[in-house]
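Supplementary Note 3. Input sequence used for the single-chain structure prediction.
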Amino acid sequence: MTSGRLAYWAQAVAEVESPDSSPPRVVLGTFATPYAGRAMRWLCVQAVRIANGLDPDPDVPWSAALICVAIEPQLALDLGDAPTQLRMWVNDERRRYNDFERLKAGQPFTLVASDWSGRYVLGLVPTVLPVRADQSAFGPPRAQPPKRRPGFLSRR
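The predicted structure, written as discrete structure tokens, is reproduced below.
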């Protein structure tokens, strides 16, 4: 078994089909922490940030007529609503708690929300960071005691 510290690595990615040569996959952010709770909180913040960027006012009814790409309106409605999917996950405390428990058990977590604008993937993976010989498995590197000059304290 590999010894090391458990850490959590999170990533928010947008995947968009593009007719030109621009990259179809854009990393919106990454985060690493030794705490599962902080990693889940970061994912929640990213989900809300993405949802608000796509749909700043969720109380206004969605209109397929506002789509600026060549796509059938009915097809756009059938694809779903990514901002709503992201907000539903953030507001569902029981689902997020179950996801948190699976993450603590060592299982990765992925949330995918998609609609006509693209696919948005929030991922969280538990990983083991290697520990150097001068490190403790449960803390920062061990500090060496400060070197004292001989007789420094005895001159008082």
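Residues 73-77 have pLDDT under 50 and may be disordered. The chain is about 30% helix and 25% strand.
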